[in-house]
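Allow me, if you will, to draw on your knowledge of protein folds for a short while. A protein sequence and the structure tokens that stand for its backbone fold form the material at issue. I would ask you to consider whether the tokens describe a fold that such a sequence might reasonably adopt. Thank you for your consideration; the sequence and its tokens are set out here:
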Amino acid sequence: MADEKYNGWTNYATWNMKLWMDNEESSYRFWVAEARQVWQDAEATEGFTREQNATYTLMKQMEQYYADENPLVTGVYADLLGWALQKVDWYSIAEAWLEDVQQDDS
């Protein structure tokens, strides 16, 4: 299966991850709070806008969070789960969270 756009997202893995992040209430609340905090703390630096720095920071937080929460599976399941998580476009998801936070604050 080739990586193709899926429902407006980079690929199925990205769409599915964002769907789960949005649809589980505790996950949704957690990521809204994280995105708000990252946005509040973000500053422009030489060569990067506030938005770029915030997006990168949130992306790294998401990658680390889901790496840490990865269940202990082995064999084919570990390979498939690892492959799927590598396909997630974390930057696009972070951009979407931050856009929502910025709209809510307007």
